[in-house]
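ok so I'm stuck.
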Amino acid sequence: MRGKNSTIGVMESKFADKVWEIAPVPSSVLVKWAQEELSWANTTTYTVLRRLCEKGLFKTEHATVSTLISRKDFYANECVKFIDANFEGSFSDFFDAYITKKELNEDDVEAVKEYLKDRGLI
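replied:
not stuck anymore, here's the structure
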């Protein structure tokens, strides 16, 4: 991603999720949605959109917003950055911390097993 700091805040995330959901989309549709759902002024919407474009998530051409990176890829990058910054890049340390606070159910465990099997890791 282009931007120096690609991390986005909670409200930017809500807005970005909507863009990912409906893009390509006219910016006027986003302005109307943000007014109704987030109580944002037009200028706020355009400011947030500009920031997200500067961070490399979206682009605006001819008043139409389209994606430059998928939602899944963006959040995958964010997860890697989080683990690198907070767990010295150790997924096992991250996973241990996660399951210490959030118990995995049978479906979660099976999904992890299948994921690892599909990738030839077990």
